[in-house]
Amino acid sequence: MFHATIRLAPPNIAALKKALREKYPNIRSSHADEALAASVGFKSYSAMLTVLKRVSDSARLVVQTDASLLQVRLEQLGYAGLVPRDLQRLVWEAQYPDRWEADEVELSLRKRFAPTAANSQ
Q1: Domain around 50
Q2: pLDDT at 107 over 90
Q3: CA distance 84 to 59
Q4: Can you tell me the mean pLDDT for 54-81?
Q5: Is residue 22 part of a domain?
Q6: Per-residue pLDDT tens for 69-97?
Q7: In a domain, 118, yes or no
Q8: Burial 15-42 (b: 16+ CB within 10 A, else e)
Q9: Nearest CA to 5 among 94, 73, 108, 107?
Q10: Which domain of life is it from (predicted)?
Q11: pLDDT reading at 1 higher than 60
Q12: What is the reported pLDDT for 52?
């Protein structure tokens, strides 16, 4: 299973939460927070919130989201019958406002570390 890579930033987490709650309106807000934290590797929403508050605009923390971890945490919170493929699609298709790959720094790093062509002078 492929994982979506996102920049760990408050707008992205909010966008993912919005997409999750639109698809599954029965999921409580606090449960969505806990499940989203689990999907990016945190044991709790509180732990993720601590990191989110420390990440400034100049810091870049890129994480992979795992729809399986999202599903497991939601099931632990009492939400049964979730379809793994639907959760994976939701994570991939969410509209993340803070894109990491279009960032100026990312582009300059790619150029800097790109190999030089053998026939260039």
Answers
A1: 5-113
A2: no
A3: 32
A4: 87
A5: yes
A6: 999 999 999 999 999 899 999 998 999 88
A7: no
A8: bbbebbeeebeebeeebbbbbbbbbbeb
A9: 94
A10: Bacteria
A11: no
A12: 87
Helix (H, G, I), strand (E, B) or coil at 23: helix
Q: Model pTM? A: 0.77
User: Position of tokens 């379809």?
Assistant: 83
Host H or E run for residue 64: strand 62-64
Give the pLDDT band of residue 98 (cuts 50, 70, 90).
confident
User: Look-up: residue for tokens 């049964």?
Assistant: 80
User: What are the residue ranges of helices labelled H in 6-97?
Assistant: 10-23, 29-39, 45-54, 67-76, 84-93
Among the listed residues 119, 1, 111, 121, the one whose alpha carbon sits nearest the alpha carbon of residue 67 = 1
C-beta of residue 88 within 8 angstroms of C-beta of residue 67: yes
Q: How many domains does the chain have?
A: 1
Query: Does 120 map to a domain?
Result: no
Amino acid identity for residue 43 in this structure: K
